[in-house]
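Researcher: I'd like a candidate sequence for this fold, 122 residues long. If you have to choose between options at a position, lean toward the conservative one.
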């Protein structure tokens, strides 16, 4: 599981457009620019508690959108599969200097299956 700051930042990338401008800005200031609740409260001329409430509501909405749509989970899964493909391709490149054609064909077939799996999940 990724850490909270990274997760909220990614969720904001995926679903931020579904939040109000104030919610987006509060999340941006707190998570991406590392401003404290007091600093954000001063910006909006509201209380720290109001900023806390806005952040919690926005975080809950982002998590709810993710639970329903799963875009972040799919993105992370696809990134993992692509990392596997890249690693396998590097292995193939290393084997090219003396490996048999059959071994290389097996590697290529495995890569093809990984990519097909990723495409099917879309």
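Model: Candidate sequence:
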């Amino acid at each position: 599981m990724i850490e909270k700051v990274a997760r909220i930042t990614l969720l904001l990338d995926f679903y931020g457009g579904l939040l109000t401008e104030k919610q987006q800005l509060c999340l941006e200031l707190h998570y991406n620019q590392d401003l404290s609740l007091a600093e954000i409260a001063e910006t909006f001329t509201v209380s720290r508690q109001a900023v806390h409430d806005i952040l919690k509501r926005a975080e809950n909405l982002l998590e709810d959108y993710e639970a329903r749509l799963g875009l972040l989970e799919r993105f992370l899964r696809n990134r993992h599969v692509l990392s596997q493909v890249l690693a396998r391709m590097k292995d193939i490149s290393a084997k090219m200097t003396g490996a048999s054609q059959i071994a290389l064909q097996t590697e290529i077939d495995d890569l093809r299956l990984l990519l097909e799996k990723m495409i099917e999940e879309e």
